[in-house]
């Protein structure tokens, strides 16, 4: 990744993982979805990927934000920050 926003994105992903570990119960139905989203985002960082896959990832992130905003407001705020960084990167 060559974008200047790359380090910020990595920091936001670490923050989301920390928030997940701190506030989302292991038996919560939200946890697997957030974990999969994190894996997908981290995987996307490792490879350039095709445009369609990146757009699907952004769509998944938007969907997660809408789904979790009431139950997990801090995780949702971090996901919003990630969307801003991705947008700044042209994704």
What does this protein look like?
The structure is a single chain. This protein has one domain. The model has no long low-confidence stretch (mean pLDDT 81). The longest helix has 18 residues, at 6-23. The chain contains four helices and no strands. With 91 residues, the protein is mainly alpha-helical. Helix content is 76%, strand content 0%.
Largest sheet: none
Query: pLDDT under 50 segments (min length 5)?
Result: none
Secondary-structure element string: HHHH
Domain module tally: 1
- State the secondary-structure class: mainly alpha
Number of distinct helices: 4
Distance between the termini: 12 Å
What is the arithmetic mean of pLDDT? 81
Outline, from the CA principal axes? globular
Strand content: under 5%
Helix content: over 70%
Total number of beta strands? 0
Furnish the topology, listing elements before pairings:
Elements: H1 6-23, H2 30-46, H3 51-68, H4 73-88
Helix pairs in contact: 1-2, 1-4, 2-3, 3-4
Short description:
This protein has four helices and no strands. It is an all-alpha fold.
Summary keywords:
76% helix, single chain, mainly alpha, 91 residues
